[in-house]
Specification:
Blueprint lengths: L14 E5 L5 E5 L11 H10 L8 E2 L3 E4 L8 H5 L6 E2 L8 H4 L3 E2 L17 E2 L11 H5 L5 E3 L4 H8 L17
Parallel strand pairs: 1-6
Antiparallel strand pairs: 1-2, 2-3, 3-4, 4-8, 5-7
Bound molecules: iron/sulfur cluster.
């Protein structure tokens, strides 16, 4: 199911994945509903092996966003990215996705397509801040779970409480000086 363009618009994050550098993090947004992952035999088998329940997760990232309910751990985005924005989160911390969305990561997980921990793993945009907006990851995702939109910085900042509207509409106190 293609990730919706407005997945983060006027919504509140449900999680925050922090980078251990103490500077960077990315939001996790509300689930758009169970999708491809809940029907994929490889993903279901991995959940069963791990003793985990298939449940709604959400969308990881804002400007570089991956719908984890759609992600079937194909790894095409990971392979396509020239600057290693993504990692397989489970290759760094082998925990369930519902726990991962509140965790801190070092970014030391694998950024190699075939090195997924198993098919319950997800591509996580741990280095969202390094994205160069090349869009290579977007079209290669089989379930179209990836959306890259630099304009979503606005929603990242609004959720953080740092958003300041800029532009011609902004009042200039010295305009008539
Ligand atoms: S748009 Fe390009 S740089 Fe950004 S995450 Fe996708 S592949 Fe990587």
């Amino acid at each position: 199911m293609p990730i919706k363009e407005d997945f983060c618009h006027n919504k509140k994050p449900i999680g925050k994945i922090m980078h251990s550098d103490g500077e960077h993090f990315h939001w996790v947004w509300p689930s758009q509903g169970l999708a491809e992952a809940s029907k994929n035999p490889d993903v279901l088998a991995a959940y069963k092996k791990n003793g985990e329940k298939m449940e709604k997760i959400g969308v990881s990232g804002t400007m570089v966003a991956v719908d984890w309910d759609s992600c079937v751990a194909d790894g095409a985005c990971i392979e396509a990215c020239p600057v290693q924005v993504f990692q397989w989160y489970r290759t760094e911390k082998d925990i369930s996705a519902v726990k991962a969305i509140h965790e801190t990561f070092d970014g030391t997980g694998s950024s190699v397509k075939e090195e997924r921990h198993d098919y319950s793993d997800n591509a996580d945009p741990i280095r969202e801040h390094d994205c160069i907006w090349c869009m290579a990851c977007v079209s290669v995702c089989p379930p179209q779970a990836v959306l890259v939109d630099q304009g979503n910085q606005e929603w990242h900042e609004k959720a953080l409480g740092t958003y300041q509207k800029l532009g011609s509409g902004q009042a200039n106190p010295h305009a008539h000086d």
